[in-house]
From TrEMBL:
Annotated ranges, domain Response regulatory: 4-120
Protein name: CheY-like chemotaxis protein
Residues that bear 4-aspartylphosphate: D53
Record key words, sorted: Phosphoprotein, Two-component regulatory system
Pfam family, one: Response_reg
Domain of life: Bacteria
Length: 122
């Protein structure tokens, strides 16, 4: 099953690496470079799932996740929070913001794909 995945990532190298791997799996990948774009694109594009970096410019991933999960129009879209700076408490903080799951970078693709499948039924 092809999924529409919104990849929210401001680092071009991380975005390129993960998007190529998702594309090879047959998914459509949309991009947002900051939290404000992520909120806007989630409304306009209606992705099947959002992969949300937490350290973003303009609006961080925690705030973008909160806004999406507090909006009836987008709250059902699953969000997996991603971070390269896994600090104690980041997982709990991401889940409190409304993330449906959490993963660290560098991404273990098999683990991430399992989480995506569990959240989307794909």
């Amino acid at each position: 099953m092809t999924l529409r995945i919104l990849l929210v990532e401001d680092n071009p190298e991380n975005r390129d690496m993960l998007s190529r791997r998702l594309l090879r799996r047959g998914h459509q990948v949309l991009f947002a470079g900051n939290g404000a774009e992520a909120v806007s694109m989630t409304h306009s594009e209606r992705p099947d799932i959002v992969l949300m970096d937490l350290s973003l410019p303009i609006m961080d991933g925690w705030e973008a996740t909160r806004r999406l999960k507090n909006d009836a129009a987008t709250q059902a879209i699953p969000i997996i929070a991603l971070t390269a700076h896994a600090m104690a408490g980041d997982r709990a903080r991401a889940m409190e913001a409304g993330a449906d799951d959490y993963d660290t970078k560098p991404v273990d693709l098999e683990s991430l794909m399992g989480k995506i499948a569990a959240l989307t039924g794909a």
